[in-house]
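Q: Here's a chain of 569 amino acids. Please give me its 3D structure as tokens.
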Amino acid sequence: MVVCQRISASIACLAMLLSGCELRPGANQTAEPFELSTVDMTHRLESADTIKAHMAFLADDLLEGRAAGSRGEALSALYVASTYEQLGLDPRGEGDAFIQPVPLRSAKLDLESVAFRILKGNQTDTFVNGEDIFVSGSLSETSIHATVPAVFVGHGITAPEYGLADYDSVDVRGKLVVVFGGPPAFLPSAEAAHFGSTAVKQKLAAEAGAIGLIRLWTPANEAQISFDLLKNYLSGASMTWIGPQGEVKDSAPEIKLRATIRGPAADALFANAKMSAAEVIEAGETGPVKGFPLTTSVFLALTTQHDDGLVSGNVAGFLSGSDPLLKDEVVVVTAHYDHVGICKPEGEGDRICNGALDNALGTAAMMDVARRFTVASERPRRSVLFLAVGAEEKGLLGSDYFATYPTLGEKSIVANINMDGGFPFYDFSDVIAFGAEQSTLGEMLAKAVGPMGLKVGPAPFPQQGIFTRSDQYSFVKKGIPALFLYNGFTNLAGENVGLGIWNRLLQTSYHQPSDDLSLLEDYSFAGKYAEVFYRVVREVANADTRPQWYKDSLFGAIYAPRSEKADAP
């Protein structure tokens, strides 16, 4: 599921599901009562059967959890490609194939090589990786051995329009910056999501001349996931993609030293400083905190083993539009088909994380939407690309690779609609749409689901900023309006039943072997979920006007500054 940055892609994905957005006024108006017709019920039942069949393959133990670069992931890609061919879609992978290979670099940390010390004068404090510090392997360096002075820079953000200029008062050239982990709680959700991203903080630090970045683990971080769980990812490998010319994707290669710290390590780092770690963390919960030099330095040594022999893949099936004037505009529909593989040590019973909900469900629903379009009496006006992306769990790698190297020639991508997980265990009365407040896609979604008697409801955790944490963000960064769909928490009686279900699944099944086919007995609600997916894609593909960012959208301003913008409703 979503990275999801790479303290572990899995953590980003968790944060994704604990996230949300604020909708425009009027976007969540309840539609007129809806009576299910015979045709609608037929579609829903057909979709339910189709999704059940696809999930039975994708979430089977034989695929061993579909980890990025694994045989199970490759078999899944072939299954999706075969389905596309059966449906009559055109291949849009590499050459005449459905699959676009995504070369990967695996970076595996040598656990015995890690040395992390905080130095102040003649005093040295040593910390063990996975206890009060977390250090992962380097994507670009095989060996790191350095001692660097530390500087605290608050949230590590440069955004004068929000009163944030954290690098203005300190010199960080050649130094290691210390920043709060995660999004600043005092910013609106979209802005918090963007500026709270580790990748954005690393990029801003590099632009200021820093060579290292340490994240302070805050209570807000701990509320999302326990720091103690991080040690489960120490033996795993970080990943990135390798481009056609051999370039290795790293958001900020200048940042050589990277770590996350908490508790005693944070206290040691702020020893004898202007403020203690606890004081700056408390102050940072409500507003900006001005940076200051620390009296300590950090020594970090580690060795990383690189493996450039792994390959993931994106599976691309193309449906040409019917309108001569619009068919060169493409709506890209995405779902990631990978998961986290064999996730338990030997001797611990069931070791396979099947990823039934995350994200065999989304992939199966996307393939069902493709089926619906191919059997429809009329093709959509715009073209539609159905893109099953790989290596999402390792940092949105497949979607980022495609967005960087699209296989569509001169055609223009006008929108992305993404589906990543869900819990269709009840008949829902609303739909969550992360990013709905950023572009006219939110209005298009409301129009599409209104006839189903659904409203576009608010997401349950708007403070987390999920919009940057799943595959749609790869397209957003290219200036393309996007939506991430999720079924709402409210049932037909108006009760919030989703929150309790989500909390239970988070505790028992998230990235665990129990996320398997036994969770779903009734697939009819998954069929309704797919109906939502189909209707919004059809609405966008048939609309007279392509989607536009709103004039006040942060993402439109940053990533599509020259595009025509729309007034918010």
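Q: Can you summarize the key feature?
A: Residues 373 and 379 are 7 Å apart (CA to CA).
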